[in-house]
Amino acid sequence: MSTRDDGNDPGVLRTDGIEVRTLAPTDLDWMVRIDKEWSGSGRRGYYEVKLAEAVRDTSVRISLAALVDGTPAGFLMGRVYYGEFGVPEPVAQLDTIVVARAFTGKHVAEALLRQLKLNLRGLRIERLQTQVEWDQLNLLGFFQHAGFKPAPRLCLELEVE
């Protein structure tokens, strides 16, 4: 995937103006606000637990924040699993990626994913997985453009009555 814009200096990436850093406990309020733009509900309790977990496990830096000119623009969260579901090698799981509506189309998700891949390479993690709802076509398109492909595993679900 090329990250250069046409006409740009060859050494300039379109994600260069986006600061990406590890999530911090102080990020909770804006994370909840950005998520609410898309979900319609404030999931503060959910993000309190997820953020506390991400901050506690500082050896695996795969939960990231993106800022544009100091303004929170998006975030992603994930985990590394070492041998889950009978898979012997480590794999990273991306479970959340959210970009503020004001920053959609401005390469924020691309910057987050780029930094995540750099961090995973440093940890010698060779695979990144995620799940997407069937009807989230924009998100599916983003992941396809980023190089994701259907996994050779089938996700199964059982309704517990």
Description of the molecule:
Helices cover 30% and strands 22% of the residues. The chain starts with 17 loop residues before the first strand and ends in a 16-residue tail after the last helix. It is globular and about 45 Å long. It has a single domain (18-133), classed as Aminopeptidase (3-Layer(aba) Sandwich). Mean pLDDT is 87; it is low at 1-6. The protein has 161 residues and is an alpha+beta fold. β4 (90-99), α3 (108-122) and β5 (128-130) form a beta-alpha-beta unit.
Highest CATH level, the class: Alpha Beta
Kindly report the spatial arrangement of strands forming the biggest sheet.
Answer: 1-2-3-4-5
Shape: globular
Question: What is the string of helix and strand elements?
Answer: EHHEEEHEH
Topology (SSEs and partners):
Blueprint: E1 18-22, H1 28-39, H2 44-56, E2 64-68, E3 71-82, E4 90-99, H3 108-122, E5 128-130, H4 137-145
Parallel strand pairs: 4-5
Antiparallel strand pairs: 1-2, 2-3, 3-4
Helix pairs in contact: 1-2
Distinctive features:
disordered N terminus; 161 residues; 30% helix; Aminopeptidase; alpha+beta; globular
Brief overview:
With 161 residues, this protein is of the alpha+beta class. Helix content is 30%, strand content 22%. It has one domain: Gcn5-related N-acetyltransferase (GNAT) (Aminopeptidase, 3-Layer(aba) Sandwich).
